[in-house]
Description:
By secondary structure, the chain is of the alpha/beta class. The chain has helices at residues 6-9, 51-56, 82-94, 110-122, 139-144, 165-173, 188-191, 194-201, 279-294, 299-305, 335-347, 367-380, 394-402, 413-423, 440-448, and strands at residues 4-5, 20-21, 23-25, 35-38, 61-64, 76-78, 100-105, 127-129, 153-157, 177-180, 213-217, 233-238, 246-254, 257-264, 268-274, 317-321, 324-329, 353-358, 385-389, 406-410, 429-433. α12 (367-380) crosses α13 (394-402). The chain starts with a strand and ends with a helix. The model has no long low-confidence stretch (mean pLDDT 94).
Amino acid sequence: MKPIPANQLLAGLALAGPEPITDVVTDSRKVTPGCVFVCFPGEHVDGHDYAAAACKAGAAYIVANRPMDGVPEDRLVVVPSSHHAMVRMASNYRMLFSPLMIGVTGSVGKTTTKEFCYAVLSAFGNTLKTEGNQNNEIGLPNTLFRLDDATEYAVVEMGMSALGEIERLARAARPSAGIITKIGVSHLENLGSRENILKAKLELCYGLPDGAPLVLNADDDLLPAAKLPDRLRPVWFGIENGSADVRAVDIRQEGGGTRFVLSDREYGDFPAVIPTVGLHTVSDALAAYTAATRLGLDPARAAAALADYRTTGMRQHIVQKGGVTVVEDCYNASPDSMRAALAVLQGLPAKRHIALLGDMLELGAVSEQAHRQVGEWAAEAGVDLLIAYGPRSRAAAEAARAKGVTSLHCNTEDEVVGYVRQNVRPGDALLAKASHAMKLDDVLARFYQTL
């Protein structure tokens, strides 16, 4: 973080002096002299309990939700919401810099699209990106605080669980271009309908300047009919929709990658290769190329840079373990991403195709229907064995079994590890996918110990 005067960083939150602030931290173990320490009340740990110690360690200011013993009044900033205060400070800090920035949101594919954007932008200069999926009102500010004078390009990911969140993040980040990947059913429990999810994702527009490119998925069923601000420049990408501005045609899977022709109505055709499989990742690559080129970057160079994509974490990471081809996709799950992952499994050469699918969370009233649909998709994808993990996934097992798929169901980690060990053999392909809270990464780690 570049040093910034306290009165500039804390503008809109408190009156402060001109002393330089060198960092903003939310972990008391990372407090250094001259930083701002932001207290967050958590489920297990409350940052307010460490405020006095942070002050003694040299924190210049403490941002808290209430008055604190042991913190001098002139060093305490009391705010209604620590989350909103983080976003406000990040917005103030963002004003010091002017990189070309892409903002990415959507119900599915955000992180993969962000990583494709990073691959493309990095071909043109020093690029900052959101690490992992740090896309909320703590993660996005932490990304913006990493901006410095050397940053030429940036890509930031924006997530949400309620209306209004993406608007706050977008206004803080002020991206030069925006991408909306897809309108799915994630967070339906909080938002109630896909129309409300669409409304939430379109809040990205509030942070875009007049004339900015807004990159949209033409294959989505809701986005093409959405009312968009006249002041923005919509650009459409897609695979199935022939009217899209940027399309992928002649798509061919080659080993662990995909080759296609990137057909751009404005700039022509370019060969492209990405080190991933699945049509959904082709779509994510199209989004990144489209945003970069509409910001003025060279199209041929942008298309070639898609090959530099690298996966992060356990997101559709294909590995070989003891003769088993494993698709590690344990970070998140929604009906859309489940269907895409099953298509990837189906395309892998193997003696048998086995799906280890865990619960999808935050689906609200459609949860049982969505899990049953996943079971039916597993049957359509030719899965030889479905191992369903978690109470919600019982519906997936029942639906797959009704379609003739051998299906097992379990509720504990020990059960699922036992089923995987008993049933997965060399020559098989195994897909492991669930919401992150199901901890399938731990299941795989225990399974790998036996190979």
